[in-house]
Amino acid sequence: MRPSGRSLSQLRDIRFEPGFSKYAEGSCMVRFGGTHVLCTATIEEKAPPFLKGTGSGWITAEYGMLPRATHTRTDREAARGKQTGRTQEIQRLIGRSLRAVMDLKILGERQIRIDCDVIQADGGTRTTAITGSYVALYQALSSLVEKDILKQLPMTDQVAAVSCGIYEGHPVLDLDYAEDSTAEADANFVLTGRGGIVEIQATAEKSPFSEPDFHALLELAREGVDVLVGLQRKALGI
Amino acid sequence: MRPSGRSLSQLRDIRFEPGFSKYAEGSCMVRFGGTHVLCTATIEEKAPPFLKGTGSGWITAEYGMLPRATHTRTDREAARGKQTGRTQEIQRLIGRSLRAVMDLKILGERQIRIDCDVIQADGGTRTTAITGSYVALYQALSSLVEKDILKQLPMTDQVAAVSCGIYEGHPVLDLDYAEDSTAEADANFVLTGRGGIVEIQATAEKSPFSEPDFHALLELAREGVDVLVGLQRKALGI
Amino acid sequence: MRPSGRSLSQLRDIRFEPGFSKYAEGSCMVRFGGTHVLCTATIEEKAPPFLKGTGSGWITAEYGMLPRATHTRTDREAARGKQTGRTQEIQRLIGRSLRAVMDLKILGERQIRIDCDVIQADGGTRTTAITGSYVALYQALSSLVEKDILKQLPMTDQVAAVSCGIYEGHPVLDLDYAEDSTAEADANFVLTGRGGIVEIQATAEKSPFSEPDFHALLELAREGVDVLVGLQRKALGI
Amino acid sequence: MRPSGRSLSQLRDIRFEPGFSKYAEGSCMVRFGGTHVLCTATIEEKAPPFLKGTGSGWITAEYGMLPRATHTRTDREAARGKQTGRTQEIQRLIGRSLRAVMDLKILGERQIRIDCDVIQADGGTRTTAITGSYVALYQALSSLVEKDILKQLPMTDQVAAVSCGIYEGHPVLDLDYAEDSTAEADANFVLTGRGGIVEIQATAEKSPFSEPDFHALLELAREGVDVLVGLQRKALGI
Amino acid sequence: MRPSGRSLSQLRDIRFEPGFSKYAEGSCMVRFGGTHVLCTATIEEKAPPFLKGTGSGWITAEYGMLPRATHTRTDREAARGKQTGRTQEIQRLIGRSLRAVMDLKILGERQIRIDCDVIQADGGTRTTAITGSYVALYQALSSLVEKDILKQLPMTDQVAAVSCGIYEGHPVLDLDYAEDSTAEADANFVLTGRGGIVEIQATAEKSPFSEPDFHALLELAREGVDVLVGLQRKALGI
Amino acid sequence: MRPSGRSLSQLRDIRFEPGFSKYAEGSCMVRFGGTHVLCTATIEEKAPPFLKGTGSGWITAEYGMLPRATHTRTDREAARGKQTGRTQEIQRLIGRSLRAVMDLKILGERQIRIDCDVIQADGGTRTTAITGSYVALYQALSSLVEKDILKQLPMTDQVAAVSCGIYEGHPVLDLDYAEDSTAEADANFVLTGRGGIVEIQATAEKSPFSEPDFHALLELAREGVDVLVGLQRKALGI
Question: What reaction does this catalyse (chains A, B, C, D, E, F) (predicted)?
């Protein structure tokens, strides 16, 4: 029934390529099927001004999409001179999601900048970005532990994200573009390895949906994230 | 236990003042306790370019906050030369929420612009804005029916919104600023009069929260929205 | 003869509502008939950089208009990404007008930010804003005296403003929108309680006007401001 | 008493160099002492959108200052990415002043763009710009008459401008920078050849000033403008 | 002597991966050693306004760099709200270089947009981008011929580019970052397959250089481009 | 054969007017025929942040064009809110060219800002600007020596620039607008008094050009610059 032939609760082919970047302290090329996102983590030995003197650090994220990552070309945000509301919404979400599994006191007064750049888009770029960013962030933080700058990894849990939606009346896991563009409802779930909820964003695309539908989506997401956190660990060798 | 002395499932004092504006086709000053938002609806007899020739119309929204609506002054976005990511996120949410209860084909090729301006902020400005905008939009659409420009009201349901959160370990309804700033989790629910879900945005503020907690918040929201849609009807005399 | 039925030298219904804002150190909702402006005064314990080390303070002002304050909707400046020339002109005028009755040495190295937001516009928004800002500023400065931060009120006089114009050949006081949009000449006068001139801006709208016409406008303004400063004192209870 | 040794009612050395630009339809390098402004007039055979179909034309103006036109370097507005409030105020004033002596119906649906660029600034740049722009505009309009595009010159009067101020207690004409920077009051007068008032902008710089002082300034301005319009005619050979 | 151990006239390892993008009409991931640039070509069936009615088409280019393509992170241009002068210089160069080998009349009134995004930067990004863009452009144009939209390929020659420089006193071909950052002179050559010069940009980095030095650089470039155009043909199978 | 009647290797009428500006530390109005550029040099006793603590100074340049410097009016960059790519390219070139003949260590931690404003444009504005800026810079630096702030002039050579091109098949020196707009190739050469190359920018305008053509252009440029540096010395009296 799904355009891709997947079963209702089947993820796309998921691949993590940690250490993709030659220069970044942490990086991961993550692919959810045809959606490819390059995530890098850059360590800055200075916290943002609002944290000065608090002993705490920060994780921030930026998100971008190459102009021809999509079916038809999208205007380059740098050329337009501003980021769209969608871009800003996504990069705020990525930052919040990662901070939810951080102990920012242990990180200390430094900042990790996450950059998520969509090389190719086939639905679910924000959830792909969050899932890959965890890997890039883990790498960067590990490097601080290896260099004895930090005594322990300042992470409290794993985090991953996946989209679900109501497609032709059925709850399905991990929407691709063909499904996403016609889904009746679309939800993004950011969940932790131990089962906590970090963020839920559920949106009716055509008409309001019911609570039972919503519960079905949440259940699918839980299953999907369980697979994703396993793959993250495998990619990181932990 | 709540700073305001309210019970866990008690809304603030809610007031709708429809027809507040001398000029707008629809308007409502809405107050959720100390949060005051002026919502206006402006009818434009021209749909946005991407709908040209489709026979469908559009609802769009903008959101702003007076610089001293808050405890400490916030920079004026017009002076800074751009809207923050938060503002863009909120105005996109308001537009989506209202469109979810519209039949845009019946509206025809015209656009309604909703403006939500926060005169005073004490938590929950986005949910207050959605709830009041429904009233302003209803007024504007009614005026089109009264003038025989439309044969029927192009709305399929009522819509209202409320925030809930985990405050000192307890699920509470309709957070004010004192609660919002220290809540463990914060969720905004946009629901319809007939029980449908339009949008859910739930965010862990400090650490991930559990599914049972989430369900408690959804239940509170359902109760709150039932009250709000009743008050909307009363304000509109329908 | 006037659309509103007022006599040539009659002000509109003038109302001051000091302390309108829950948060601001000083505030006043001021209404000149259908023109409603919310003025707030925010105290900052830091002077602008160009005054550093001089012992003097500063008063600055910003001005905005809600998009649907007007008959037809005006684009939101924050969304357009810049303030219009008109807005900048007005906010510079408000700042200069208030500074003209200040002793900035007595104020010391701090800054008062005035925000004037037009909730509804029916002509004369800039003069209304100046007249109401005086009240908000007075409140804010009084609070500094009450807290013993200042030994005395750093004001040297009262200031108020009013517009006059040539309407259908007659000099009239306090133009509303119906008059303003067809007036032959339009002038804004900012005058002090003791009779000084702070600012005069007189503009021929259609064709140049004569010196005697100008003198008639100035005389009307003097009468109007005398009433306004009385109402300011009454509102402030001084 | 004046730093320049001029008498109280003496203009600076005034020079008009019409036809300064090789390309513009009208142009004038105008010098008021050390203040040098290049004014050009460009004819566009298309009125601005808001006049489409009205049969009327428009005059608009832009103003700029070379970065090192001043004692210390001023940031280049093109590099800063926006025009200051002062610049916008001045260019709006220039446009209004010229339109006040135009019959825009006779001009027809075309637009004249005036550009005033300050090559060197020594006080009074806005009044110098208005006075020189009249000459550039006259040239451009004459060329339309010569080419039989217009049957008659669409001007109803001459216009010129001059600043006056209270300097060390005395009303003086045509302030230079040394006077302007310490004057107690500063006023710009835009007057017509036949004695009409186009615009008055009077500002108290330190403390409010009196009505008699203001009248003295207006009288000086009248004398100054009478000289300036004579020099304009001489420069244009009319 | 070179940090990479290459001989003075040796190119880096050059790789072309045509058809890299799933969506673009033409694309090529091009790698000059550690410099990796994704080039895509997007066909638009509309020429830019200035060519309307001329029967001619256009090639335009945009250039960007991922924030962590470099040793230390570079600010994202979309976040800063504008493109740097360097970016604009490079994208203008890419567009000119490709147009130099086009017959824009044969292309007809359509536009090809080239996007060059640097995934990893190790010197020579602009020359790498030009060389890869030729391949992407060729693919896109071939698709128009295959679909019988064009009768023939509207290209008159091949084009490729390479940098050369004076490094520790020696002319060297194809600078990598280690060389580029300390070179005495740096030159970019855009040359055609048949030996024509399209663009030369030579810059003294520390002190002026001599004509003989310049000629040595040009000779090296000629040799390098001969290799590059051969590799382009091989990648395209032509 | 040339529109101006000049011989192939003949410069236009070249004039330097040093000390043109009343305020700038160095200035020169330079004219290459109908191209007139006002160059000023402003001394700032503070180096840019990236040089702090290095003991070195900096030369930076900005470039602008009056809106009606050209045949048809060009939009004012300050009004458009950003500088074009062309402007940025030119101002970067001017800065690099001047720095190439500076000993920035001797200059010490200060910055000279060069402003080049085109009053009238008839081709070759960037080369004219470089040639005139040298004179303005020399004046400013001399003033530092005269005041004993510097012990010696921190310049290592003279620098001047000229454009050459292939016009109707012939290499010609110093293109004016009539030639520039139809030339087959266009090259800008920045050369030093002692024969060094500072910068070469050569561009094929229609189709690629040959190496012999390029060499002919370089030879012409050498001759032209020899004349220009002589005129610079004469203007400076050195």
Answer: tRNA(n+1) + phosphate = tRNA(n) + a ribonucleoside 5'-diphosphate
Assigned token pair, F178: 């009539």
F9 touches D: beta carbon within 8 Å:
no
In angstroms, the CA C92 to CA C100 distance is 12
Q: Which of residues 138-157 of B touch C (CB under 8 A)?
A: none
How far apart CA D160 and CA A36 sit, in angstroms, is 66
pLDDT in tens, A55-92: 999 999 999 999 999 999 999 999 998 899 999 999 99
Q: How does DSSP classify residue D220?
A: H
User: Does the domain spanning D14-236 belong to CATH 3.40.50.1820?
Assistant: no
Given an 8 Å threshold on Cβ–Cβ distance, is E210 in contact with F218? no
pLDDT at C58 over 90: yes
Check if the beta carbon of residue B100 is closer than 8 Å to that of residue A208. Answer: yes
> Which amino acid is present at D110?
R
**Is D2 one of the annotated binding-site residues?**
no
How many Cβ contacts (< 8 angstroms) between chains A and B? 95
pTM: 0.91
* Residue of C92, A116, C195, E40 whose CA lies nearest to D86: C92
* Nearest to D225, CA basis, from D3, D17, D32: D32
The answer to whether F104 touches D100, Cβ cutoff 8 Å, is: no
B contacts of A86 (beta carbons < 8 Å):
92
Asked if residue E184 lies in contact with residue E200, where contact means CB atoms within 8 angstroms, the answer is no
CA D43 to chain F, closest CA, distance in angstroms equals: 9
Establish if B158 touches chain A: CB-CB under 8 angstroms.
no
pLDDT band at F157 (very low <50, low <70, confident <90, very high): very high
How near does any CA of chain D get to the CA of C167, in Å? 16
| Residue among E3, E64, E59 at smallest CA distance from E39 | E64
Q: Mean of the pLDDT values across residues F190-204? A: 96
With beta carbons less than 8 A apart as the criterion, state whether D102 and D155 touch. yes
Backbone angles phi, psi at C205, to 5 degrees: -90, -35
Contacts of E119 in chain A (CB under 8 A): 38, 119
Rounded CA gap, F154 and F59, in Å?
12
How does DSSP assign D41-105, residue by residue? Answer: EEEESS--GGGTTSS--EEEEEEEE-TTSSSSPPPPHHHHTS--HHHHHHHHHHHHHHHTTB-HH
